[in-house]
């Protein structure tokens, strides 16, 4: 046994491997047989070690990728998406009358709009409604579900704009000015189907803000539906429109229906994948160039 052990150790095999082979072949086995088994055992051990090392490497790489994902800016944006969403300022009168088909001031419409933004994760939602809407419903000013206004006020979502009576006449502050001013100062979004043309003409910065931050909407029964393309089909998506920093990639422009046969050249407003980033002259421009 000692002779066979020393022989195997000189060849680089361990005592455990020799014992395994001798247990299999017996102590009377010949050196050549032992050597053959040691070679087989050595190859098997190397293979197992390679597989083990490969598995360890894969696990380490997966762990590294996972840690990179957790530290990536995109992951932070998704995790803290609530902080990336813009403040919302809702024109309560416009929304309520729209939900009531311009006949009834429907407070339920305001609640539907507020819930839509809260469910998306917006933390800063403000609704402006004239204070006289607290008064009891009259035939010439019908109001439904009026208790919703009080509830939203307690939740610090709804704000009543001031109004008072002077010698029996109601004096009302202009609620649209509150809406535009707060949205402008908070760098938020105005939710309304009103264009605020009078206020846009007052200040150039207000006009630009209204043009870029007005979110229109529709009601389909009790479903509040803003458009997927608030600024047109070539503008940002609704997801990016509502965010301070876009994290959802924008879709490319609509492919040109004429393809390679298009004669508009670089003036074509559609997307041409075959051109890449190279501008292409129109047919008229080509003819002018040739005549020169």
From TrEMBL:
Residues 283-292 have a biased composition (Basic and acidic residues). The keyword tRNA-binding does not apply. InterPro entries: Rege-1_UBA-like, RNase_Zc3h12_NYN, ZC3H12/N4BP1_RNase_Reg, Znf_CCCH. Belongs to the ZC3H12 family. GO terms for cellular component: cytoplasmic ribonucleoprotein granule; nucleus. Residues 250-275 form the C3H1-type domain. This is Ribonuclease ZC3H12C. It comes from Charadrius vociferus (Killdeer). Coiled coil: none annotated. GO terms for molecular function: hydrolase activity; mRNA binding; RNA endonuclease activity; zinc ion binding. Residues 59-80, 273-292 are annotated as: Disordered. Keywords: Endonuclease, Hydrolase, Magnesium, Metal-binding, Nuclease, Zinc, Zinc-finger. The keyword Protease does not apply.
